[in-house]
Amino acid sequence: MSELTHINAKGEAHMVDVGLKDETVRLAKAEGFVCMALETLAMITDGTAPKGDVLACARIAGIMGSKRTADLIPLCHPLNITKSTVDLTPYAPGEHPEGKVGIHVLATLGVTGQTGIEMEALTAVSVACLTIYDMCKAADRGMEITDIRLVLKEGGKSGTWSRED
């Protein structure tokens, strides 16, 4: 593993200077899953949740969250995000490869810039998952947010990284 770029020679946290780095097209994908009771999933997919359209709200919340990453993560650079999508896929019993019931969240973020966009993708997923939980917690406090992770990173000096590699 390479040295931590957010730690200076004195061992102090600092914001990395990206001023001399070349601008490149960068992409990141992250995913997560909200496990829930079958009745909760039905409420979401039937559109009968008391707080409204859970999937639409979570999608917008994830996009908004991606744009606020630098406000939430202290050493992240503010980025001029060029792409932010949040896809939500319901999984009923027997549909998910691991047998989970709930909502899979996939965020795809893009930027042309001097630093990566992985944290924005992870933030989008986290905020979307938290929004699903918030909108359904009255019906199912046992929901679990799981498997939040980076799936793909493209661009920059280190090139492409994929979870499948």
List the helices and strands and how they pair.
Blueprint: E1 24-35, H1 38-46, H2 54-67, H3 69-72, E2 83-91, E3 102-113, H4 118-136, E4 144-154, E5 161-162
Helix pairs in contact: 2-4
Task: Provide a concise account of the structure shown.
This protein is an alpha+beta fold.
Structural commentary:
The chain is an alpha+beta fold. The protein has four helices and five strands; from the N terminus they run βαααββαββ. Strands 2-3-1-4-5 form a five-stranded antiparallel beta sheet. The chain starts with 23 loop residues before the first strand and ends with a strand.
β content, as a range? 25-35%
Mean pLDDT: 91
Q: What is the number of helices?
A: 4
Tell me, briefly, the overall form: elongated
Q: Report the span from N to C terminus.
A: 17 Å
Estimate percent helicity. 25-40%
- Describe the main β-sheet briefly: 5 strands, antiparallel
Order of helices and strands: EHHHEEHEE
Radius of gyration: 18 Å
Class per helix and strand makeup: alpha+beta
Main β-sheet, spatial strand arrangement:
2-3-1-4-5
Count of individual beta strands: 5
Low-pLDDT regions:
none
Describe the structure using short key phrases.
165 residues; alpha+beta; 5 strands; 28% helix; 28% strand; elongated
